[in-house]
Amino acid sequence: MDALEIARWQFGITTVYHFMMVPLTIGLGLVVAIIQTIWYRTGKPEYLRMTKFWGKLFLINFIMGVATGIVQEFQFGMAWSEYSRFVGDVFGAPLALEALLAFFVESTFLGLWIFGWKQLKRGVHLACLWIAVIGSVFSAYFIIVANSWMQHPVGVEMVDGRPVMTDAWAVFTNNTALVAVPHTLFGALAVAGAFLLGIAWYHLWRRRHDGIDTVGKDGRIIPGDAPHIPGRDKADYTVWMKSLRIGAVVAMISFAGTAFTGDLQGKLMFEQQPMKMAAAEAACHDGTGFSILSVGNVGSSNCEDVVAVIEVPGILSFLAKGDFTTEVKGVNSLLGEYKEKYGTHLPDNPLYGERAGQEIQYVPVMEVTYWGFRMMIGFGGIAAFAALLALWVTRKGAVPQSKWLMRLAVFGILAPFGANAAGWIFTEMGRQPFVVAPNPDMNGIDQVFMFTAAAVSPGVSAGELMTSLVVLTAIYAVLLVVEVKLLVKYIRGGVASAMPELASEKHGTDSKDQSDKNDGDAGPGKSGDDVLAFAY
């Protein structure tokens, strides 16, 4: 393995791991803000419990996201210095806004939310959470603006071989970004929806398993109390049932949103990066049919032995052009065009080192693009179907007693995570061999592109990169164990793990009293008066 390949593995591993935190942070933050808003307006204690429980899990994930995201910034300088030099004039603005504006707003107001439960008025406290959540959305927007410029460079002119930003408005309103942002947000909400659904299902199942809740002759649930277990009262049942239903609805709406925005994103990709989309369909020859399943050597650059087993006529044309008849260029046709425009071999330039003169592989790894595209759609569809099924199964207020069905609901949390990861892998891997992709619709400045082979740091050896790869992978593995253990601990602890004051309440205390005790307008209560009880 040479330095370029190791650097790509390093960035891929750290980025995919970090991105596991991002959609849950954004999606769960939005859901928690909505739930706290409902509590603010209604005063119902179950919504306070939901806010604190899901808020605690949100905080754990947020902290891990910050810890893993810091590495991404350093990699631009350590492993990809030539890339940083090339894009620096453009990336400076969105990345500075993300760090100096969005992240600081997000972290500042999130801190006020954590410490302000008893110190701030309820309305002010709620506003802090909304500002923090909106800050996370803007943070994602600025990052996507930078990434979208790599997919579709706009608003620049070439000066001494480097792109210089001449139109900031064009960069920040890049049509690729404007479609990618809502697609990403819907994907984040899909993760949050499945997260709520799976965990709520587990707690409802456990209440039935422990004999707290029973089912009447009409099949409807009869919530009960467990005086010996803190927080396991009738209100606890309401917390989990409402969480399950909110999660299921969010998951279904999110799937519809990702499908709609994904269609718009696909049409843009057919225009901007036709090779990526042809490889995603294993469309080796010009045509209109969409391959649901192809077999053969999907990684072959000439595609001669790829056979479509299941193909739907006209669908590929609809995905690309919005009709069912326009032929879409396949890999073989596009390959000749790319070679004619950008050459057959890497330039004889010191930037490429030993890779100078190597043949350029314009066809991305089709096993990744083809199956990544289908995994993205498949996992998203599975999560949406599971949400619909959950609403139907629990229509009488009870989850089945099946342990295996409970486990399936919990593991189903991973489906939208898989869809998000597959989508980003497809987006980034499909752009190869370019780190900044040339676009044919660039108004005459199609020369704005950069080969990935020229982007890696020339002064970093393969051994140094391999060392950092091993160390970072090991550190991230430890962080993964820490996060999973923390999440499992507080998930199993239920609402009481986020509201220790429940443990000191006497059985029979009106739950409305608890709501009042935690009202921001009131002073500290006798129990849970440690301001860090919620955070820790």
From TrEMBL:
Q: Which UniProt keywords apply?
A: Cell membrane, Electron transport, Heme, Iron, Membrane, Metal-binding, Transmembrane, Transmembrane helix, Transport
- Family the UniProt entry places it in: Belongs to the cytochrome ubiquinol oxidase subunit 1 family.
What GO cellular-component annotations does this UniProt entry give?
cytochrome complex; plasma membrane
Kindly give the InterPro entries that the UniProt entry links to this protein: Cyt-d_ubiquinol_oxidase_su_1
Q: Which GO terms describe its biological process?
A: aerobic electron transport chain
Pfam families noted in UniProt: Cyt_bd_oxida_I
The UniProt transmembrane annotation reads 20-41, 53-71, 91-115, 127-150, 185-204, 244-262, 371-393, 405-426, 465-482
Q: Offer an example of a GO molecular function term for this protein.
A: metal ion binding
Species of the source: Paenarthrobacter nitroguajacolicus
The segment annotated Disordered runs over 502-536
Quote the subcellular location field of this record: Cell membrane
Q: How does this chain sit within the bilayer?
A: Multi-pass membrane protein
Spans of biased composition, class Basic and acidic residues?
Answer: 503-520
- Record flagged with keyword Transmembrane helix: yes
Name this protein carries in UniProt: Cytochrome ubiquinol oxidase subunit I
